[in-house]
Amino acid sequence: MSDLSITVNGLHFPNPFVIGSGPPSTNARVIIKAFNAGWGGVVAKTCALTENKAINVQPRYGKLKSPSGDTVGFQNIELISDSDFENWENWFKQIKDEVPDKPLIGSIMESYDKGRWQEVAARSVEAGCDALELNFSCPHGHPEKGMGAAMGQDPAQVREVTSWVKAAVDVPVWAKMTPNITQIADPGRAAVEGGADGLSAINTILGMIGINMKNLLPKPTVQGHSTPGGYSYTAVKPIALRMVSELARALPNTPVSGIGGVTCADDAFEFILVGASTVQSCTGPMLQGFEMVEEMIEGLHARLEQHGFDNVQQAVGHSLQYFSTHHGLVELQAEAKAAKAARRAARDAAKEMITDDRQWGTGSFQEEAAALVTED
Ligand SMILES: Cc1cc2nc3c(=O)[nH]c(=O)nc-3n(C[C@H](O)[C@H](O)[C@H](O)COP(=O)(O)O)c2cc1C
Question: Quick one: fold of 6-320?
Answer without folding.
Answer: TIM Barrel (3.20.20)
